[in-house]
Amino acid sequence: MSKLFIGGLAWHTTDDALRQGFERFGQVEEAIVVKDRDTNRSRGFGFVRFSTDADADAAMDAMNNQEFDGRTIRVDKASERAPRNNGGFHGRGGYNQSEGGPGNGGQRYGGGQGYGGGSWRNGESA
């Protein structure tokens, strides 16, 4: 894989500075400093993608545990992100709607007919 994880970046490191620091090892296709979506401040890490694995390996060997932009950085091969399964708040956190979630009432709790299973209007009970 030609994508590297760069950890321990200085808060002031920019995408351009990251690119310039790694270009000497080969053609950099992408250099990104990851930023907080709310504050737009650096999160202290980023990624550099090279056109070849050989260039990425050379950069990793030369730059790992070296000073860059005033900080000692860690350089590793980037791992693939696991696919998302709609977890977390907005994706309902994996909450199974057939087990009491909104929509059909859930089979565990009477299949949408309330707790008694009958209609309180008819005087029926379960």
TrEMBL record:
Q: In Gene Ontology terms, what is one molecular function of this protein?
A: RNA binding
All residue ranges annotated as the RRM domain in the record: 2-80
> Gly residues: which segments have biased composition?
88-120
Gene3D superfamilies, alphabetized? 3.30.70.330
Q: Which Pfam families match?
A: RRM_1
User: Sorted alphabetically, which PROSITE patterns does this protein's record hold?
Assistant: RRM
Assigned keywords, A-Z: RNA-binding
Output the InterPro entries linked to this UniProt entry: Nucleotide-bd_a/b_plait_sf, RBD_domain_sf, RRM_dom, SLIRP/GR-RBP-like
Q: Where is the composition biased (Basic and acidic residues)?
A: 72-83
Q: Where is this region: Disordered?
A: 72-126
Highest taxon, organism lineage: Eukaryota
UniProt name for this protein: RRM domain-containing protein
Q: Which organism is it from?
A: Aspergillus turcosus
